[in-house]
Design a protein that fits this description.
125 residues; alpha+beta; Arc Repressor Mutant, subunit A; 6 helices
């Protein structure tokens, strides 16, 4: 059974969406947002840790995606220190943590697809 919107539109942080799926995809859609959230499930991480774990993403893209996730309230950014080198830590907010079951379902489904129709590969050479 599908859950349908109970109105013609939904509004979140002043922005109007045609449905809740559109809202969700705006918040976590794209190539990297869900991946970033996935890597923060286990706890707080520095930018460099995320970058290491997500070697295919550029620094600029990671930075932009983190800013969008922070703006949307899914990720918090905590800065320690006032002079370089400062320490910046990213973590899931309670709102971001509410998305963990969805991330787990996405991961499970992706693994199933790879097992049935693809293959897991170690390294690209």
């Amino acid at each position: 059974m599908k859950d349908e919107c109970i109105s013609d539109y939904v509004k979140f942080k002043g922005k109007i969406y045609p449905c809740s799926v559109s809202l969700t995809m705006d918040l976590v859609g794209g190539k990297w947002k869900a991946v970033i959230l996935y890597h923060l499930i286990d706890g707080k991480k520095r930018f460099s840790e995320l970058r290491r774990e997500m070697s295919a993403v550029t620094e600029m893209t990671l930075s932009l995606q983190l800013k969008q996730l922070e703006k949307n309230g899914l990720v918090s950014r905590t800065v320690y220190g006032k002079k370089p080198p400062i320490k910046v830590i990213y973590s899931l907010t309670d709102f971001g943590k509410s998305f963990i079951p969805v991330l787990e379902s996405i991961t499970k489904w992706g693994n199933q697809v790879v097992n049935e129709k693809g293959e897991f590969v170690n390294g690209l050479s």
